[in-house]
Design brief:
- The protein has two domains: 112 residues, GAF domain (Beta-Lactamase); 132 residues, Heat Shock Protein 90 (2-Layer Sandwich), CATH 3.30.565.10.
- Helices cover 50% and strands 18% of the residues.
- The strands form two sheets. The chain has a five-stranded mixed β-sheet with strand order 5-6-7-9-8, covered by helices on one side.
- Helix 4 packs antiparallel against helix 5, helix 7 packs parallel to helix 8 and helix 8 runs antiparallel to helix 10.
Length: 336
């Protein structure tokens, strides 16, 4: 409009600003142009703004003789308003107001799309930052712990080999010490893996995290079959993380050692307990009841599973028979 003075849209901060000035406390009949538009969610044409209880407090509008105010409508109500004001009387027509309303409806869609994009961008940046932080911590922990230990083991193995030819007894003693050190290093590595939990676990829950974990293994033997009930808020984030790690470790053990065709993972709620069962149809092994050695259990990661379960007041039962597969059953108390 040639005579219009465009006043930048008084956006979502308008209503807050008007409340601060006391304008929104008035009844609709006493409210000014912007207040009526916000209340009715319909565009309006107004006259002189000098005495407007809301807009008249802005010095740039006090000489305006006519105005058109259009709501920026969204599903949740009024997103903001767009105001055109002019020093000329009767500067705006109904046709102009209706055209402006159409423009504003499209503008709101663009603004909402921009907000959604910004939200997704910030979420992506936050995700990248967390991933990089986790990566740096893992590199630091590996260099400080297991990597340094493995270098020591390699050096001492060389000495032990030379020692065996000169003094077999001392050589065997050194090998026994190295075996203990190696097992300790394996436990340290498992502790690092325990801390590497997927971000999906915190944002989408246990079911989504397990589905994403097994997704790269689809179509490969052993085939993994999931039947997961999402525990939701009845499982704290800490406990949920431990449960995920135990299931992950049990699946990894079955894939590595069981020579199975299938692995069945079931997670359900039973009274006040979460029950997770990981069962394979592989070759099986002897259990504690059959005096299976603690060292071998540790080698399979099963003693680690038991210690993790105890940390969340859970219990683990491991049932296995040679030739009949293995079943790991985890029970954990639910909260609430």
């Amino acid at each position: 409009h040639k005579t219009a003075r465009h006043v930048p849209g008084l956006g979502r901060g308008l209503c807050t600003d008007l409340r601060r000035r006391g304008a929104c406390k008035k009844e609709t009949s006493q409210a000014g142009l912007a207040g009526k538009v916000i209340e009715s969610v319909e565009p309006l044409i107004g006259g002189e703004l000098k005495d407007d209880p809301e807009l008249g407090q802005f010095s740039s509008l006090q000489k305006c003789q006519s105005a058109v105010c259009v709501p920026l409508r969204s599903e949740g109500g009024v997103y903001g308003v767009l105001l055109f004001a002019s020093p000329e009387s009767d500067a705006y027509t109904t046709e102009f107001m209706e055209a402006l309303a159409i423009y504003c409806d499209q503008a709101v869609i663009a603004l909402q799309n921009a907000e959604q994009y910004q939200g997704l961008y910030q979420e992506k940046e936050s995700f990248i930052a967390r991933e990089e932080q986790a990566r740096q911590k893992l590199v630091y922990d590996l260099r400080r712990g297991p990597l340094q230990t493995m270098k020591t083991i390699a050096t001492r193995l060389g000495r032990a080999r030379a020692m065996l030819s000169r003094d077999p007894k001392r050589g065997m003693e050194e090998l026994a010490r190295l075996e203990v050190l190696t097992r300790r290093t394996v436990r340290g590595l498992r502790a690092l893996l325990f801390g590497l939990q997927p971000i999906t676990l915190g944002s989408e829950g246990l079911k989504a995290a397990l589905e994403r974990y097994v997704q790269p293994m689809e179509g490969q033997k052993p085939f993994i079959h999931l039947d997961i009930t999402e525990p939701g808020e009845r499982l704290s984030s800490k406990v949920s993380g431990v449960v995920f790690s135990i299931i992950e470790e049990a699946i990894a053990n079955a894939r590595e050692h069981a020579e199975a065709n299938n692995i069945f993972v079931q997670v359900g709620l039973r009274d006040d307990l979460l029950v997770a069962q990981i069962q394979d149809d592989g070759k099986g092994f002897y259990t504690y009841a059959e005096r299976f050695s603690g060292e071998s259990m540790d080698g399979l990661g099963l003693s680690t599973i038991e210690s993790w379960a105890k940390s969340i007041n859970g219990k683990v039962a491991i049932n296995s028979t040679v030739g009949q597969g293995t079943t790991v059953i985890l029970t954990v108390p639910l909260q609430g």
